[in-house]
Amino acid sequence: MITIVYNRMTVMRKMMISLLFIIGSIALAYAAVVKIPDAMWKLGSAALSVMGLVYFGRLFSVTLRATVRKQSQLFVYDESGIYKENGDLVPWSNIEHFTVVYTRIGILFQPIFTHYVFKLKNGDQVVWHTYDLLTDEEAKQWARVLQEEVAARGSMNKRIGNKISV
Questions:
Q1: What are phi and psi of 121, to 5 degrees?
Q2: Cβ proximity of 63 and 21 under 8 Å
Q3: Residue 129: helix, strand or coil by DSSP?
């Protein structure tokens, strides 16, 4: 059984950086309300401060919860398949396609953290959320490993070739 875990020091670093950006966003909001006389600069500063508060506030809450958790396990898989968050096994033969969605900013500045998507033969999908607890390099490394596992063991890939995108 292979367990994907995150490094607590990396998570603590991300938490502290996000806290600094939250403080900066609050200072920018204060400046937009009190210090900046020009309406356009005021509007731009207010928009940037809201974006910073939403994005880094979410990142801070995720990293704070990850820091206080007792175990640093994100995902588990083995030679028989992948495990959902509830512990159910999804056999490799049921996985049709594997995709990685990297961190980006979504609608209303909500962060969409890196996640791995396993599309199943029945049309369902299993999503493994990293919550940005892995470094970019770790996320890419695990994506390559999982891509190779799906390519070697997935049912559709054995019949019609690789349908994997990373």
A1: -60, -35
A2: no
A3: strand
